[in-house]
Amino acid sequence: MTDTRRRVKVYTLNEDRQWDDRGTGHVSSGYVERLKGMSLLVRAESDGEWSPSRRDRGALEPPAAPGPGRAVGRARRAGEGSLLLESKINPNTAYQKQQDTLIVWSEAENYDLALSFQEKAGCDEIWEKICQVQGKDPSVDITQDLVDESEEERFDDMSSPGLELPSCELSRLEEIAELVASSLPSPLRREKLALALENEGYIKKLLELFHVCEDLENIEGLHHLYEIIKGIFLLNRTALFEVMFSEECIMDVIGCLEYDPALSQPRKHREFLTKTAKFKEVIPISDPELKQKIHQTYRVQYIQDMVLPTPSVFEENMLSTLHSFIFFNKVEIVGMLQEDEKFLTDLFAQLTDEATDEEKRQELVNFLKEFCAFSQTLQPQNRDAFFKTLSNMGILPALEVILGMDDTQVRSAATDIFSYLVEYNPSMVREFVMQEAQQNDDDILLINLIIEHMICDTDPELGGAVQLMGLLRTLVDPENMLATANKTEKTEFLGFFYKHCMHVLTAPLLANTTEDKPSKDDFQTAQLLALVLELLTFCVEHHTYHIKNYIINKDILRRVLVLMASKHAFLALCALRFKRKIIGLKDEFYNRYIMKSFLFEPVVKAFLNNGSRYNLMNSAIIEMFEFIRVEDIKSLTAHVIENYWKALEDVDYVQTFKGLKLRFEQQRERQDNPKLDSMRSILRNHRYRRDARTLEDEEEMWFNTDEDDVEDGEAVVSPSDKTKNDDDIMDPIIKENEEKEVLLKTNLSGRQSPSFKLSLSSGTKTNLTSQSPTTNLPGSPGSPGSPGSPGSPGSVPKNTSQTAAITTKGGLVGLVDYPDDDEDDDEDEDKEDTLPLSKKAKFESS
């Protein structure tokens, strides 16, 4: 059996900083004569590639590499029994153990390696070998501390006052490159190298040599200069960056970075920056310092993004100062532009001027978009001041003008600017549009322009419409609306939105649903309607009476359910989700609207048309009916069974519809037999809610009962005996009910006509009284003095009849006898109402 402990996958990091799988094999360690030292060897499996299990795959994700070392090794492509890896364990290489099954290190610059073990034991074994060669404790997770140097190095650094650089000559470029490379692993040496480069003006001398090498076409010297300049970047010093990025040096620095030894031909970055990239001043900038800062930031950003090679994870941290340099430059540019009032005034004046030509306006909008993008680098308080300045300058009226133009590129840029404003301060936008509504017609309101652009998006994938829908959702989200002592933004804005804007949003929906099926059912229209439904569903969930009034008055749900007939499943599901959200609110206003308009019909029709296919439509519809059953929404249960049972009775692969039918039958039974229902409720209360206090009260009442009240020949029943008799009383009732249910099921055919009338009025109470026609015997379920009747002191008068009163709310009687907490209050009320008046008096007096 193959030893799985040393089974590994070999990974290498590519130029895109993605880990490549080089193959699977078995790792070992041993002395390699050719490499003159202990080495790691990985031989490919002879039986083909290893396909790890799910558990193994979780541990075999390629990790982030720690840092570069100077080991000698190479990873090869897998071949049967071939050598995948041969790597010398160098004493100075930083090996790192991660996640118990990973060992990561760097072989050379931009060449990172990882071994991913199948088992932790194998990883620990190889890790001990590496630590043994390097003289480290195996308990550490990284073999080289990149911050602290050895005592010898520290002594050398303390004894030498500074680092002496070789003279800046062509013949010594290789020596300089080696010195820079050897200083990078040590923080103290990096510090000394940086100070030496600053003090001696060394960078400018190196750039002079660059011109000499280019003139002489000295490719070897240019390659050395590339390594030197790249190493200076990794020193991570702001003072050096200021020299390198100065107006006189930056283009030469870019020139040095064109000669990457790994490339057969040098890049042409300088040619691109000087000839292709053009600086456009859409508004003349009078401040030369600002202009120079913009040029510098663009070029440094270009160096970071395009010129420098992809850094390893180790080197990425060394470029943090470069990121900071660009960041603070952008902050300075935004601040200087913000302070230039003349510049901003001219900008907005030209944006809104009808005489401005289209090309110029496009440049102005693009500039403003980039300006807003730069502002994202500001601190929160500075960003507040920035957007306040733009607001005072009239950015929202300007955007309104721009969004009304025909140029799609200009409108797209204006949409991006609008998104910055909405994400930063939606209340500012809401306040503007509400003030605007007092002066302008609905057609030219800013929000209506946004909705129209969403509806009229020409992109087949509706990319712009999706972005605009997200902005609209942010604007109508009550979660980010303010409430002050004087006014409530939610009330004011939602009132405005439903009065002035909602009809624009629903226009495509209403126009497309005038018939029994969508009048236009192409893909783009379906996508648009799906976006509209998504926003309406959001409104149902987060708005209250505004959306409720709108849906009921405009008959929106009926129009939405027309889309259930769409050939696009995603649109039909959007319509179903809209209805499901409404039903989920369990609001009787919505329920009465659904029943009155028979709005389950499109859903049932879609369910039947879907047939026996087990898909999302099938599951979603069943889930909706299951929700109605589980939540016991009585009105909808009765409506569905009365009107659609015949169509649904044959569905037997789920019990949802049969469960709904059972709910309905229980409800009808309770309405037809109020006396029985009351008795069951009383017995249930007596059985499930007896505690010590109840027993004490009953015993006290029993002992306080006058002997004159007890007639001759009657048995006096103690409270303990009453609890024993409960089960005896319930048994015939339960059996009788079971027989009725079986009888109903066997005789059930077709649509059932309910034996009761639904009352849709809420808040009313109806008392149903039934007079017992026969004499109740002691111990019978209906007798007020029976052991099952709470409040009975134990004596049962003969030949008494009982008047049972059942109180129902909303004209509906509860359907199911479940001991739920939410029925406790009603049960207490039933319990009290079923007592004779004389007994009530005794309870009250006690």
TrEMBL record:
GO biological process, one term: DNA damage response
Xref: PANTHER family: ATP SYNTHASE GAMMA-RELATED, SERINE_THREONINE-PROTEIN PHOSPHATASE 4 REGULATORY SUBUNIT 3A
Xref: SUPFAM superfamilies: ARM repeat, PH domain-like
Family, per entry: Belongs to the SMEK family.
Residue ranges of the region described as Disordered: 46-76, 701-732, 746-846
Name of this chain's protein: SMEK homolog 1
Record domain PP4R3 EVH1-like: where: 82-134
Biased amino acid composition, Polar residues: 746-777, 797-806
Record GO cellular component, one term: protein phosphatase 4 complex
Residues covered by the Serine/threonine-protein phosphatase 4 regulatory subunit 3-like central domain: 175-666
Short name of any one Pfam family annotated for the protein: EVH1_PP4R3
InterPro entries recorded: ARM-like, ARM-type_fold, EVH1_PP4R3, P4R3-like_central_dom, PH-like_dom_sf, PP4R3-like
Bias kind Basic and acidic residues: ranges: 721-732
Biased composition (Acidic residues): 701-714, 818-832
GO function term, MF aspect, one: protein phosphatase activator activity
